[in-house]
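Issue 218. Parser rejects a valid record. Input:
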Amino acid sequence: MNTTTIPKQEFYDRIAKFQANIKSTGLDACLVHATESDMANVRYLSEYWPVFESAAIFVPASGESVLLVGPESDIYGAQRSVFKNIEKMIEYRESAEPECPGMKFATYKDIVSKYAPDGKIGKLGIVGWAITTLPVYMSLKKQFPDVELIKADHTLLPLRFVKSENELDCMRKAYQISELAIEAILDEIRPGMTELQVV
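Output the parser choked on:
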């Protein structure tokens, strides 16, 4: 079976288009969130999706973006993502909030200082507003009491609405695979079988 993928350059082009939207809405940067069950926005920009822990991408209006992962995801992030910039943050650890003795973590102040133009922001868009966790929100408010946090899903979602030829190829391949699976099931399924027996 031939593998269908999205080339790295397409991810970089997505970031550039997203940055244009960030600028046009008057934001200084966006923080794009993902969970294991709602990973689409982060995956769209980076080809990374979180497993077990949550994740985010800090995207300044100009300059380089950075993937933010929990303490157990940095190696996976480096292998999976198209990003070269990856930072570990305690805010993205798994929800049982395990202690991580001896580990060093970046803070949001570190991220802004390193990746935002001039090392500061006034308006931060939050993409994935509904899945942004309380620990993330509290850290942002504590570290940036004067920064305006703005729901900004509208800055990214329209980019995802229009599919590239590469995305369409992936969708076609997924359709072909699902058709093969349905055909195999139809050959085996019989009245009285349980779902588990069919699978």
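Fixed in the parser; the record now loads. The domain at 8-160 is CATH 3.40.350.10 (Creatine Amidinohydrolase; Chain A, domain 1).
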